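Quick one - inputs below.
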Amino acid sequence: MIDLILLNIATLGIFVILSLSLNLIAGYTGLLSLCHAAFYGVGAYTTAILMTKAHFTFLPSLIISGFIAAFFGFLIGLPNLRLRGDYLAIATLGFSEIVKNIFLNWDSLTGGPKGISEIPPPSIFGIKFSAYNKFQYLILIWIFVAITYFAIKRLTQSRFGRALEAIREDEVATLAMGIDVTKYKVFSFIIGAFFAGIAGSLFSVFIKVVVLNSFDFMLSIIILCMVVLGGMGNNLGAVLGATIIYFASELPKIFGISSLIPPQFNQIIFGLILVLMMIYRPQGIIPRKKIDYETNIVKEMKLRNKK
Amino acid sequence: MENFNFSTILQHFINGLTVGGIYAFIALGYTMVYGILKFINFAHGEILMMGTYISLIIYDVFLNYFKTPFLIFVAFIISLIIGICFGVTLGVSVEILAYKPLRNAPRLAPLLSAIGVSIILSNLAAFLFGTKSKKFQYPFDNTPITISGISISPNQLMILILSLILMVGLKIFIDKTKTGKAMRAASENQKVASLMGININRIISITFAIGSGLAVIAGVLIALDYKVYPTMGTMAGLKAFIAAVVGGIGNISGAMLGGIILGLLETFGTAVLGLPVGFKDIIAFGVLIIILLFKPEGILGKKTREKV
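Output:
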Protein backbone atom coordinates (compact mmCIF):
# COMPACT_ATOMS: atom_id res chain seq x y z
CA MET A 1 0.00 0.00 0.00
CA ILE A 2 2.72 2.44 1.00
CA ASP A 3 4.57 1.52 -2.20
CA LEU A 4 1.47 2.30 -4.22
CA ILE A 5 1.17 5.73 -2.64
CA LEU A 6 4.86 6.47 -3.24
CA LEU A 7 4.56 5.28 -6.83
CA ASN A 8 1.60 7.56 -7.45
CA ILE A 9 3.19 10.60 -5.87
CA ALA A 10 6.36 10.05 -7.91
CA THR A 11 4.40 9.67 -11.17
CA LEU A 12 2.40 12.75 -10.27
CA GLY A 13 5.73 14.65 -10.08
CA ILE A 14 6.44 13.78 -13.71
CA PHE A 15 3.02 15.08 -14.74
CA VAL A 16 3.58 18.26 -12.75
CA ILE A 17 6.78 18.92 -14.73
CA LEU A 18 4.91 18.29 -17.97
CA SER A 19 2.04 20.54 -17.06
CA LEU A 20 4.38 23.32 -15.88
CA SER A 21 6.35 23.20 -19.11
CA LEU A 22 3.23 23.17 -21.30
CA ASN A 23 1.92 26.06 -19.25
CA LEU A 24 4.91 28.09 -20.40
CA ILE A 25 4.06 27.42 -24.07
CA ALA A 26 0.26 27.41 -23.98
CA GLY A 27 -0.53 29.44 -20.89
CA TYR A 28 2.05 32.20 -21.01
CA THR A 29 2.81 32.51 -24.71
CA GLY A 30 -0.65 31.44 -25.84
CA LEU A 31 0.63 28.94 -28.41
CA LEU A 32 -1.61 25.89 -28.56
CA SER A 33 0.84 23.01 -28.72
CA LEU A 34 -0.49 19.50 -29.25
CA CYS A 35 2.88 17.76 -29.37
CA HIS A 36 3.97 17.95 -25.76
CA ALA A 37 3.80 14.17 -25.44
CA ALA A 38 6.20 13.98 -28.39
CA PHE A 39 8.81 16.07 -26.55
CA TYR A 40 8.27 13.90 -23.51
CA GLY A 41 8.71 10.79 -25.65
CA VAL A 42 11.88 12.16 -27.26
CA GLY A 43 13.34 12.69 -23.78
CA ALA A 44 12.35 9.22 -22.61
CA TYR A 45 13.70 7.48 -25.73
CA THR A 46 16.95 9.45 -25.63
CA THR A 47 17.67 8.43 -22.06
CA ALA A 48 16.64 4.84 -22.74
CA ILE A 49 18.89 4.59 -25.79
CA LEU A 50 21.84 6.31 -24.14
CA MET A 51 21.66 4.18 -20.99
CA THR A 52 21.07 0.80 -22.61
CA LYS A 53 23.03 1.06 -25.86
CA ALA A 54 25.75 3.62 -25.12
CA HIS A 55 26.03 2.83 -21.39
CA PHE A 56 25.91 6.43 -20.30
CA THR A 57 25.31 7.18 -16.64
CA PHE A 58 22.08 8.84 -15.62
CA LEU A 59 22.94 12.51 -15.16
CA PRO A 60 24.62 13.08 -18.55
CA SER A 61 21.79 11.26 -20.33
CA LEU A 62 19.25 13.33 -18.44
CA ILE A 63 20.86 16.54 -19.62
CA ILE A 64 21.35 15.29 -23.19
CA SER A 65 17.67 14.22 -23.24
CA GLY A 66 16.64 17.69 -22.22
CA PHE A 67 18.73 19.24 -24.98
CA ILE A 68 17.58 16.85 -27.68
CA ALA A 69 13.95 17.50 -26.75
CA ALA A 70 14.77 21.21 -26.83
CA PHE A 71 16.20 20.75 -30.32
CA PHE A 72 12.93 19.17 -31.40
CA GLY A 73 11.17 22.12 -29.84
CA PHE A 74 13.34 24.36 -31.99
CA LEU A 75 12.44 22.33 -35.10
CA ILE A 76 8.70 22.68 -34.52
CA GLY A 77 9.20 26.28 -33.47
CA LEU A 78 10.81 27.16 -36.80
CA PRO A 79 7.86 26.71 -39.17
CA ASN A 80 5.61 28.39 -36.64
CA LEU A 81 7.49 31.59 -37.37
CA ARG A 82 4.62 32.13 -39.75
CA LEU A 83 1.80 30.18 -38.20
CA ARG A 84 -0.86 31.51 -35.93
CA GLY A 85 -3.23 29.91 -33.45
CA ASP A 86 -5.18 27.20 -35.17
CA TYR A 87 -2.60 26.48 -37.87
CA LEU A 88 0.01 25.95 -35.22
CA ALA A 89 -2.21 23.46 -33.42
CA ILE A 90 -2.47 21.38 -36.59
CA ALA A 91 1.23 21.67 -37.38
CA THR A 92 2.15 20.45 -33.89
CA LEU A 93 -0.36 17.64 -34.23
CA GLY A 94 1.27 16.64 -37.51
CA PHE A 95 4.67 16.89 -35.91
CA SER A 96 3.67 14.56 -33.12
CA GLU A 97 2.38 12.07 -35.72
CA ILE A 98 5.71 12.23 -37.54
CA VAL A 99 7.67 11.67 -34.32
CA LYS A 100 5.41 8.72 -33.50
CA ASN A 101 6.01 7.21 -36.94
CA ILE A 102 9.76 7.58 -36.51
CA PHE A 103 9.70 5.83 -33.13
CA LEU A 104 7.57 3.07 -34.58
CA ASN A 105 9.58 2.44 -37.74
CA TRP A 106 13.20 2.98 -36.69
CA ASP A 107 13.44 -0.52 -35.26
CA SER A 108 17.21 -0.72 -34.81
CA LEU A 109 17.27 2.34 -32.57
CA THR A 110 13.92 2.42 -30.80
CA GLY A 111 12.94 -1.23 -30.79
CA GLY A 112 9.84 -0.45 -32.87
CA PRO A 113 6.57 -1.52 -31.30
CA LYS A 114 8.36 -3.49 -28.57
CA GLY A 115 10.11 -0.43 -27.22
CA ILE A 116 13.17 -0.49 -25.00
CA SER A 117 13.22 -2.42 -21.76
CA GLU A 118 15.69 -3.11 -18.96
CA ILE A 119 16.85 0.43 -18.49
CA PRO A 120 19.39 0.23 -15.64
CA PRO A 121 18.60 2.03 -12.38
CA PRO A 122 20.38 5.37 -12.11
CA SER A 123 23.17 6.19 -9.74
CA ILE A 124 23.85 9.79 -8.82
CA PHE A 125 26.99 10.97 -6.99
CA GLY A 126 27.73 7.46 -5.81
CA ILE A 127 24.19 6.78 -4.57
CA LYS A 128 22.95 3.69 -6.31
CA PHE A 129 19.19 3.54 -6.80
CA SER A 130 17.48 0.32 -5.95
CA ALA A 131 14.67 -0.80 -8.22
CA TYR A 132 12.47 -1.59 -5.21
CA ASN A 133 13.00 1.58 -3.27
CA LYS A 134 10.33 3.92 -4.61
CA PHE A 135 11.20 6.56 -2.04
CA GLN A 136 14.54 7.36 -3.71
CA TYR A 137 12.82 7.94 -7.03
CA LEU A 138 10.18 10.05 -5.37
CA ILE A 139 12.84 12.37 -3.92
CA LEU A 140 14.71 12.52 -7.25
CA ILE A 141 11.59 13.38 -9.23
CA TRP A 142 10.33 15.98 -6.79
CA ILE A 143 13.75 17.67 -6.71
CA PHE A 144 13.32 18.17 -10.44
CA VAL A 145 9.74 19.34 -9.92
CA ALA A 146 11.08 22.02 -7.59
CA ILE A 147 13.84 22.99 -10.05
CA THR A 148 11.31 23.23 -12.88
CA TYR A 149 8.86 25.21 -10.81
CA PHE A 150 11.38 27.80 -9.70
CA ALA A 151 13.10 28.02 -13.07
CA ILE A 152 9.80 28.64 -14.86
CA LYS A 153 8.58 30.95 -12.12
CA ARG A 154 11.72 33.11 -12.32
CA LEU A 155 11.56 33.04 -16.09
CA THR A 156 7.96 34.17 -16.26
CA GLN A 157 8.55 37.01 -13.83
CA SER A 158 11.46 38.34 -15.85
CA ARG A 159 11.58 40.50 -18.95
CA PHE A 160 11.38 37.28 -20.95
CA GLY A 161 8.12 36.24 -19.27
CA ARG A 162 6.57 39.67 -19.74
CA ALA A 163 7.43 39.50 -23.44
CA LEU A 164 5.70 36.11 -23.68
CA GLU A 165 2.57 37.45 -22.01
CA ALA A 166 2.60 40.44 -24.29
CA ILE A 167 2.72 38.10 -27.29
CA ARG A 168 -0.26 36.21 -25.95
CA GLU A 169 -2.28 39.38 -25.44
CA ASP A 170 -1.50 41.09 -28.73
CA GLU A 171 1.12 40.01 -31.21
CA VAL A 172 1.00 43.08 -33.39
CA ALA A 173 1.27 45.50 -30.47
CA THR A 174 4.18 43.48 -29.10
CA LEU A 175 5.92 43.65 -32.45
CA ALA A 176 5.37 47.40 -32.46
CA MET A 177 7.07 47.61 -29.06
CA GLY A 178 10.22 46.32 -30.69
CA ILE A 179 10.03 42.81 -29.27
CA ASP A 180 11.28 40.07 -31.55
CA VAL A 181 8.09 37.99 -31.45
CA THR A 182 9.53 35.12 -33.47
CA LYS A 183 12.54 34.72 -31.24
CA TYR A 184 10.47 34.67 -28.08
CA LYS A 185 7.95 32.21 -29.50
CA VAL A 186 10.68 29.81 -30.57
CA PHE A 187 12.40 30.16 -27.20
CA SER A 188 9.21 29.42 -25.34
CA PHE A 189 8.96 26.20 -27.37
CA ILE A 190 12.61 25.34 -26.72
CA ILE A 191 12.36 25.82 -22.98
CA GLY A 192 9.03 24.03 -22.69
CA ALA A 193 10.37 21.11 -24.71
CA PHE A 194 13.55 21.01 -22.61
CA PHE A 195 11.61 20.44 -19.40
CA ALA A 196 9.30 17.95 -21.08
CA GLY A 197 12.42 16.06 -22.18
CA ILE A 198 13.69 16.06 -18.59
CA ALA A 199 10.34 14.66 -17.48
CA GLY A 200 10.61 11.94 -20.13
CA SER A 201 14.09 11.05 -19.00
CA LEU A 202 12.97 10.74 -15.36
CA PHE A 203 10.02 8.62 -16.50
CA SER A 204 12.21 6.19 -18.40
CA VAL A 205 14.53 5.47 -15.47
CA PHE A 206 11.58 5.31 -13.09
CA ILE A 207 9.45 2.89 -15.09
CA LYS A 208 12.49 1.18 -16.72
CA VAL A 209 10.55 0.45 -19.89
CA VAL A 210 9.87 2.81 -22.78
CA VAL A 211 7.05 1.91 -25.15
CA LEU A 212 5.31 4.00 -27.74
CA ASN A 213 1.89 3.87 -26.07
CA SER A 214 3.04 6.04 -23.19
CA PHE A 215 3.51 9.03 -25.50
CA ASP A 216 0.44 9.13 -27.69
CA PHE A 217 -1.64 12.08 -28.74
CA MET A 218 -4.08 11.49 -25.89
CA LEU A 219 -1.33 12.30 -23.42
CA SER A 220 -0.82 15.70 -25.01
CA ILE A 221 -4.53 16.30 -24.49
CA ILE A 222 -4.37 15.17 -20.87
CA ILE A 223 -1.51 17.58 -20.17
CA LEU A 224 -3.45 20.33 -21.91
CA CYS A 225 -6.44 19.50 -19.70
CA MET A 226 -4.27 19.88 -16.61
CA VAL A 227 -3.14 23.33 -17.70
CA VAL A 228 -6.63 24.46 -18.70
CA LEU A 229 -8.25 23.17 -15.51
CA GLY A 230 -5.64 24.68 -13.20
CA GLY A 231 -5.46 28.01 -14.95
CA MET A 232 -3.60 28.99 -18.09
CA GLY A 233 -0.66 31.21 -17.31
CA ASN A 234 -0.47 30.39 -13.63
CA ASN A 235 2.24 28.05 -12.39
CA LEU A 236 0.45 27.11 -9.18
CA GLY A 237 -2.61 26.43 -11.29
CA ALA A 238 -0.61 24.04 -13.46
CA VAL A 239 0.49 22.12 -10.37
CA LEU A 240 -3.04 22.01 -9.00
CA GLY A 241 -4.51 20.97 -12.37
CA ALA A 242 -1.99 18.17 -12.72
CA THR A 243 -2.78 16.92 -9.21
CA ILE A 244 -6.54 16.94 -9.70
CA ILE A 245 -6.50 15.27 -13.11
CA TYR A 246 -3.89 12.72 -12.12
CA PHE A 247 -5.73 11.59 -9.02
CA ALA A 248 -9.12 11.75 -10.71
CA SER A 249 -7.88 9.30 -13.33
CA GLU A 250 -5.96 7.09 -10.89
CA LEU A 251 -8.47 6.90 -8.04
CA PRO A 252 -10.42 3.96 -9.46
CA LYS A 253 -7.13 2.08 -9.83
CA ILE A 254 -6.08 2.92 -6.27
CA PHE A 255 -9.39 1.74 -4.85
CA GLY A 256 -9.34 -1.32 -7.07
CA ILE A 257 -12.61 -0.59 -8.86
CA SER A 258 -11.10 0.18 -12.25
CA SER A 259 -12.65 -2.95 -13.74
CA LEU A 260 -16.12 -1.57 -13.04
CA ILE A 261 -15.59 1.57 -15.07
CA PRO A 262 -15.22 1.35 -18.86
CA PRO A 263 -11.79 2.57 -20.02
CA GLN A 264 -13.24 5.31 -22.22
CA PHE A 265 -14.93 6.94 -19.28
CA ASN A 266 -11.85 8.83 -18.12
CA GLN A 267 -11.22 10.32 -21.51
CA ILE A 268 -14.83 11.36 -21.93
CA ILE A 269 -14.41 13.24 -18.64
CA PHE A 270 -11.26 14.95 -19.95
CA GLY A 271 -13.18 16.08 -23.01
CA LEU A 272 -16.03 17.34 -20.83
CA ILE A 273 -13.56 19.23 -18.65
CA LEU A 274 -12.17 21.02 -21.71
CA VAL A 275 -15.60 22.02 -23.02
CA LEU A 276 -17.14 22.99 -19.68
CA MET A 277 -14.09 24.91 -18.48
CA MET A 278 -13.98 26.89 -21.70
CA ILE A 279 -17.66 27.81 -21.39
CA TYR A 280 -17.98 28.45 -17.66
CA ARG A 281 -14.52 29.24 -16.32
CA PRO A 282 -12.00 29.86 -19.10
CA GLN A 283 -9.51 31.33 -16.64
CA GLY A 284 -9.19 28.02 -14.76
CA ILE A 285 -9.39 27.25 -11.04
CA ILE A 286 -6.60 29.68 -10.15
CA PRO A 287 -6.72 32.53 -12.65
CA ARG A 288 -3.48 34.17 -13.60
CA LYS A 289 -2.48 37.23 -11.64
CA LYS A 290 -2.79 40.43 -13.54
CA ILE A 291 0.09 42.73 -12.81
CA ASP A 292 -1.48 46.09 -12.28
CA TYR A 293 1.15 48.41 -13.70
CA GLU A 294 -1.11 51.42 -13.53
CA THR A 295 -1.74 51.33 -9.79
CA ASN A 296 1.95 50.68 -9.23
CA ILE A 297 2.77 53.89 -11.05
CA VAL A 298 0.08 55.80 -9.17
CA LYS A 299 1.43 54.51 -5.85
CA GLU A 300 4.93 55.48 -6.80
CA MET A 301 3.85 58.97 -7.81
CA LYS A 302 1.98 59.43 -4.53
CA LEU A 303 5.10 58.41 -2.64
CA ARG A 304 7.15 60.92 -4.58
CA ASN A 305 4.66 63.67 -3.93
CA LYS A 306 4.84 63.05 -0.20
CA LYS A 307 8.59 63.51 -0.31
CA MET B 1 10.19 0.57 -59.38
CA GLU B 2 7.26 0.11 -61.65
CA ASN B 3 7.68 0.93 -65.29
CA PHE B 4 5.60 3.88 -66.27
CA ASN B 5 3.47 3.88 -69.31
CA PHE B 6 0.39 5.82 -70.09
CA SER B 7 -2.09 3.36 -68.59
CA THR B 8 -0.35 3.06 -65.19
CA ILE B 9 -0.18 6.83 -64.96
CA LEU B 10 -3.87 7.02 -65.80
CA GLN B 11 -4.57 4.33 -63.22
CA HIS B 12 -2.78 6.30 -60.50
CA PHE B 13 -4.55 9.41 -61.66
CA ILE B 14 -7.95 7.79 -61.20
CA ASN B 15 -7.01 6.39 -57.80
CA GLY B 16 -5.70 9.77 -56.70
CA LEU B 17 -8.81 11.49 -57.98
CA THR B 18 -11.03 9.18 -55.91
CA VAL B 19 -9.06 9.76 -52.74
CA GLY B 20 -8.98 13.46 -53.53
CA GLY B 21 -12.75 13.56 -54.01
CA ILE B 22 -13.22 12.15 -50.52
CA TYR B 23 -10.77 14.63 -49.02
CA ALA B 24 -12.57 17.43 -50.80
CA PHE B 25 -15.91 16.38 -49.30
CA ILE B 26 -14.55 16.55 -45.80
CA ALA B 27 -12.46 19.64 -46.47
CA LEU B 28 -15.59 21.55 -47.49
CA GLY B 29 -16.93 21.25 -43.95
CA TYR B 30 -13.74 22.66 -42.47
CA THR B 31 -13.44 25.46 -44.91
CA MET B 32 -17.07 26.60 -44.66
CA VAL B 33 -16.95 26.72 -40.87
CA TYR B 34 -13.59 28.47 -40.96
CA GLY B 35 -14.94 31.00 -43.42
CA ILE B 36 -17.70 32.07 -41.06
CA LEU B 37 -16.48 31.38 -37.53
CA LYS B 38 -12.71 31.62 -38.13
CA PHE B 39 -11.89 28.52 -36.18
CA ILE B 40 -11.04 24.91 -36.95
CA ASN B 41 -13.82 22.53 -36.07
CA PHE B 42 -11.67 19.78 -34.64
CA ALA B 43 -14.72 17.62 -34.07
CA HIS B 44 -15.56 17.47 -37.79
CA GLY B 45 -13.85 14.10 -38.27
CA GLU B 46 -15.67 12.68 -35.27
CA ILE B 47 -19.04 13.81 -36.60
CA LEU B 48 -18.15 11.97 -39.81
CA MET B 49 -17.35 8.86 -37.80
CA MET B 50 -20.56 8.96 -35.75
CA GLY B 51 -22.74 9.45 -38.82
CA THR B 52 -20.97 6.63 -40.62
CA TYR B 53 -21.44 4.27 -37.69
CA ILE B 54 -25.15 5.02 -37.42
CA SER B 55 -25.72 4.68 -41.12
CA LEU B 56 -23.81 1.42 -41.50
CA ILE B 57 -25.33 -0.17 -38.41
CA ILE B 58 -28.79 0.54 -39.78
CA TYR B 59 -27.67 -0.81 -43.14
CA ASP B 60 -26.51 -4.00 -41.43
CA VAL B 61 -29.92 -4.42 -39.80
CA PHE B 62 -31.63 -3.89 -43.17
CA LEU B 63 -29.44 -6.55 -44.78
CA ASN B 64 -31.16 -9.20 -42.65
CA TYR B 65 -34.43 -8.51 -44.39
CA PHE B 66 -33.51 -7.34 -47.86
CA LYS B 67 -31.97 -9.95 -50.08
CA THR B 68 -32.30 -8.93 -53.73
CA PRO B 69 -29.59 -6.63 -55.17
CA PHE B 70 -32.08 -3.86 -55.89
CA LEU B 71 -33.51 -3.90 -52.36
CA ILE B 72 -30.01 -3.95 -50.86
CA PHE B 73 -29.16 -0.85 -52.82
CA VAL B 74 -32.38 0.82 -51.64
CA ALA B 75 -31.55 -0.14 -48.06
CA PHE B 76 -28.12 1.39 -48.51
CA ILE B 77 -29.57 4.66 -49.74
CA ILE B 78 -32.13 4.78 -46.91
CA SER B 79 -29.51 4.12 -44.25
CA LEU B 80 -27.19 6.67 -45.85
CA ILE B 81 -29.95 9.26 -45.57
CA ILE B 82 -30.63 8.35 -41.94
CA GLY B 83 -26.90 8.62 -41.22
CA ILE B 84 -26.77 12.02 -42.89
CA CYS B 85 -29.73 13.22 -40.82
CA PHE B 86 -28.02 12.00 -37.66
CA GLY B 87 -24.72 13.64 -38.60
CA VAL B 88 -26.47 16.92 -39.40
CA THR B 89 -28.34 16.91 -36.08
CA LEU B 90 -25.14 16.08 -34.22
CA GLY B 91 -23.12 18.75 -36.00
CA VAL B 92 -25.70 21.46 -35.41
CA SER B 93 -26.21 20.54 -31.76
CA VAL B 94 -22.46 20.42 -31.11
CA GLU B 95 -22.26 23.93 -32.50
CA ILE B 96 -25.11 25.16 -30.31
CA LEU B 97 -23.85 23.46 -27.12
CA ALA B 98 -20.09 23.79 -27.36
CA TYR B 99 -19.20 26.63 -29.74
CA LYS B 100 -22.03 29.13 -29.57
CA PRO B 101 -21.33 30.22 -25.97
CA LEU B 102 -17.75 30.93 -27.03
CA ARG B 103 -18.42 33.09 -30.04
CA ASN B 104 -16.93 36.21 -28.48
CA ALA B 105 -14.25 34.43 -26.44
CA PRO B 106 -10.53 34.57 -27.29
CA ARG B 107 -9.55 32.49 -30.29
CA LEU B 108 -8.04 29.67 -28.27
CA ALA B 109 -11.30 28.94 -26.42
CA PRO B 110 -13.47 27.44 -29.21
CA LEU B 111 -10.46 25.49 -30.46
CA LEU B 112 -9.97 23.85 -27.06
CA SER B 113 -13.69 23.24 -26.78
CA ALA B 114 -13.65 21.55 -30.20
CA ILE B 115 -10.78 19.30 -29.14
CA GLY B 116 -12.84 18.39 -26.08
CA VAL B 117 -15.87 17.51 -28.21
CA SER B 118 -13.78 15.39 -30.53
CA ILE B 119 -12.41 13.37 -27.60
CA ILE B 120 -15.86 12.92 -26.10
CA LEU B 121 -17.29 11.68 -29.41
CA SER B 122 -14.50 9.27 -30.30
CA ASN B 123 -14.50 7.71 -26.84
CA LEU B 124 -18.27 7.57 -26.77
CA ALA B 125 -18.15 5.65 -30.04
CA ALA B 126 -15.52 3.29 -28.65
CA PHE B 127 -17.76 2.72 -25.63
CA LEU B 128 -21.00 2.26 -27.60
CA PHE B 129 -19.79 0.38 -30.67
CA GLY B 130 -16.60 -1.26 -29.40
CA THR B 131 -13.03 -0.59 -30.49
CA LYS B 132 -12.92 -3.34 -33.12
CA SER B 133 -13.20 -2.18 -36.69
CA LYS B 134 -16.25 -3.24 -38.64
CA LYS B 135 -16.45 -4.26 -42.27
CA PHE B 136 -19.52 -3.73 -44.40
CA GLN B 137 -20.92 -5.45 -47.44
CA TYR B 138 -20.95 -3.49 -50.68
CA PRO B 139 -24.47 -2.53 -51.72
CA PHE B 140 -23.56 -3.54 -55.29
CA ASP B 141 -21.24 -5.91 -57.05
CA ASN B 142 -17.82 -4.34 -56.55
CA THR B 143 -15.77 -6.32 -59.05
CA PRO B 144 -13.52 -3.79 -60.80
CA ILE B 145 -14.29 -2.93 -64.40
CA THR B 146 -11.21 -3.11 -66.60
CA ILE B 147 -10.96 -0.97 -69.71
CA SER B 148 -7.69 -1.28 -71.66
CA GLY B 149 -5.52 -1.98 -68.63
CA ILE B 150 -7.15 0.55 -66.32
CA SER B 151 -9.29 -0.93 -63.60
CA ILE B 152 -11.89 1.03 -61.72
CA SER B 153 -14.18 -0.34 -59.06
CA PRO B 154 -17.86 0.61 -59.01
CA ASN B 155 -17.33 2.22 -55.61
CA GLN B 156 -14.61 4.45 -57.07
CA LEU B 157 -16.94 5.30 -59.92
CA MET B 158 -19.68 6.17 -57.44
CA ILE B 159 -17.27 8.39 -55.49
CA LEU B 160 -16.21 10.22 -58.65
CA ILE B 161 -19.76 10.76 -59.89
CA LEU B 162 -21.12 11.74 -56.47
CA SER B 163 -18.31 14.17 -55.78
CA LEU B 164 -18.78 15.80 -59.17
CA ILE B 165 -22.55 16.20 -58.66
CA LEU B 166 -22.34 17.38 -55.06
CA MET B 167 -19.53 19.83 -55.65
CA VAL B 168 -21.23 21.42 -58.62
CA GLY B 169 -24.46 21.48 -56.62
CA LEU B 170 -22.79 23.12 -53.66
CA LYS B 171 -21.06 25.67 -55.85
CA ILE B 172 -24.41 26.60 -57.43
CA PHE B 173 -26.04 26.74 -53.99
CA ILE B 174 -23.38 29.10 -52.64
CA ASP B 175 -23.19 31.29 -55.74
CA LYS B 176 -26.80 31.51 -56.84
CA THR B 177 -29.25 31.07 -53.97
CA LYS B 178 -30.21 33.65 -51.40
CA THR B 179 -29.00 31.50 -48.50
CA GLY B 180 -25.69 31.04 -50.26
CA LYS B 181 -25.39 34.76 -50.68
CA ALA B 182 -26.12 35.20 -46.97
CA MET B 183 -23.41 32.68 -46.15
CA ARG B 184 -20.89 34.57 -48.25
CA ALA B 185 -21.92 37.81 -46.60
CA ALA B 186 -21.55 36.28 -43.13
CA SER B 187 -18.07 35.06 -43.91
CA GLU B 188 -17.14 38.50 -45.20
CA ASN B 189 -18.28 40.40 -42.14
CA GLN B 190 -20.65 38.99 -39.54
CA LYS B 191 -21.63 42.27 -37.96
CA VAL B 192 -22.50 44.03 -41.19
CA ALA B 193 -24.30 40.92 -42.44
CA SER B 194 -26.49 40.86 -39.35
CA LEU B 195 -27.24 44.56 -39.82
CA MET B 196 -28.50 43.70 -43.29
CA GLY B 197 -31.10 41.43 -41.73
CA ILE B 198 -29.27 38.14 -42.06
CA ASN B 199 -29.94 35.76 -39.19
CA ILE B 200 -26.36 34.81 -38.33
CA ASN B 201 -27.32 31.93 -36.02
CA ARG B 202 -29.41 30.37 -38.76
CA ILE B 203 -26.59 30.75 -41.29
CA ILE B 204 -24.08 29.15 -38.92
CA SER B 205 -26.45 26.25 -38.28
CA ILE B 206 -26.91 25.76 -42.04
CA THR B 207 -23.15 25.82 -42.52
CA PHE B 208 -22.64 23.14 -39.90
CA ALA B 209 -25.51 21.11 -41.35
CA ILE B 210 -24.08 21.11 -44.89
CA GLY B 211 -20.57 20.38 -43.67
CA SER B 212 -21.69 17.49 -41.47
CA GLY B 213 -23.91 16.02 -44.17
CA LEU B 214 -21.09 16.00 -46.72
CA ALA B 215 -18.75 14.50 -44.12
CA VAL B 216 -21.12 11.60 -43.45
CA ILE B 217 -21.39 10.86 -47.18
CA ALA B 218 -17.59 10.82 -47.36
CA GLY B 219 -17.41 8.63 -44.27
CA VAL B 220 -19.77 6.00 -45.70
CA LEU B 221 -17.88 5.95 -49.01
CA ILE B 222 -14.57 5.43 -47.17
CA ALA B 223 -16.07 2.83 -44.88
CA LEU B 224 -17.15 0.63 -47.79
CA ASP B 225 -13.58 0.35 -49.07
CA TYR B 226 -11.87 0.32 -45.71
CA LYS B 227 -13.54 -0.20 -42.35
CA VAL B 228 -15.36 1.67 -39.60
CA TYR B 229 -13.59 2.25 -36.31
CA PRO B 230 -13.85 4.91 -33.58
CA THR B 231 -10.74 6.82 -34.64
CA MET B 232 -11.40 6.73 -38.39
CA GLY B 233 -12.43 10.38 -38.32
CA THR B 234 -9.20 11.68 -36.88
CA MET B 235 -6.84 10.87 -39.73
CA ALA B 236 -9.43 11.55 -42.45
CA GLY B 237 -10.22 14.83 -40.75
CA LEU B 238 -6.57 15.85 -40.53
CA LYS B 239 -5.89 15.07 -44.18
CA ALA B 240 -8.99 16.97 -45.20
CA PHE B 241 -7.92 19.89 -43.09
CA ILE B 242 -4.56 19.88 -44.86
CA ALA B 243 -6.46 19.84 -48.15
CA ALA B 244 -8.47 22.86 -47.02
CA VAL B 245 -5.29 24.74 -46.11
CA VAL B 246 -3.59 23.81 -49.39
CA GLY B 247 -6.51 25.16 -51.39
CA GLY B 248 -6.87 28.25 -49.23
CA ILE B 249 -8.93 27.94 -46.10
CA GLY B 250 -12.26 29.72 -46.19
CA ASN B 251 -12.46 29.26 -49.96
CA ILE B 252 -14.94 26.67 -51.22
CA SER B 253 -13.40 26.05 -54.65
CA GLY B 254 -10.06 25.97 -52.85
CA ALA B 255 -11.19 23.08 -50.67
CA MET B 256 -12.23 21.08 -53.73
CA LEU B 257 -8.98 21.84 -55.53
CA GLY B 258 -6.89 21.20 -52.41
CA GLY B 259 -8.54 17.84 -51.82
CA ILE B 260 -7.88 16.66 -55.34
CA ILE B 261 -4.28 17.94 -55.32
CA LEU B 262 -3.58 16.21 -52.02
CA GLY B 263 -5.14 12.96 -53.21
CA LEU B 264 -3.07 13.01 -56.41
CA LEU B 265 0.14 13.93 -54.56
CA GLU B 266 -0.33 11.09 -52.11
CA THR B 267 -0.99 8.44 -54.73
CA PHE B 268 1.73 9.59 -57.10
CA GLY B 269 4.12 10.26 -54.22
CA THR B 270 3.90 6.73 -52.90
CA ALA B 271 3.90 5.22 -56.40
CA VAL B 272 6.72 7.25 -57.97
CA LEU B 273 9.01 7.35 -54.95
CA GLY B 274 8.20 3.75 -54.06
CA LEU B 275 7.57 4.72 -50.45
CA PRO B 276 5.94 2.30 -48.04
CA VAL B 277 2.27 2.98 -47.35
CA GLY B 278 2.97 4.27 -43.84
CA PHE B 279 4.75 7.27 -45.31
CA LYS B 280 1.62 8.54 -47.03
CA ASP B 281 0.83 10.53 -43.91
CA ILE B 282 4.26 12.09 -43.89
CA ILE B 283 3.71 13.32 -47.47
CA ALA B 284 0.50 15.03 -46.38
CA PHE B 285 2.07 16.73 -43.39
CA GLY B 286 5.12 17.67 -45.44
CA VAL B 287 2.83 19.33 -47.98
CA LEU B 288 1.10 21.18 -45.15
CA ILE B 289 4.33 22.54 -43.72
CA ILE B 290 5.66 23.56 -47.15
CA ILE B 291 2.40 25.36 -48.02
CA LEU B 292 2.31 27.10 -44.65
CA LEU B 293 5.89 28.26 -45.05
CA PHE B 294 5.73 29.53 -48.60
CA LYS B 295 2.10 30.34 -49.34
CA PRO B 296 0.21 30.34 -46.04
CA GLU B 297 -2.95 31.74 -47.63
CA GLY B 298 -3.21 28.63 -49.86
CA ILE B 299 -3.47 28.29 -53.61
CA LEU B 300 -6.77 30.11 -54.07
CA GLY B 301 -6.84 32.05 -50.80
CA LYS B 302 -6.80 35.78 -50.60
CA LYS B 303 -3.80 37.40 -49.03
CA THR B 304 -4.82 39.25 -45.90
CA ARG B 305 -2.68 41.56 -43.90
CA GLU B 306 -3.27 41.61 -40.21
CA LYS B 307 -4.63 44.95 -39.18
CA VAL B 308 -4.80 46.39 -35.72
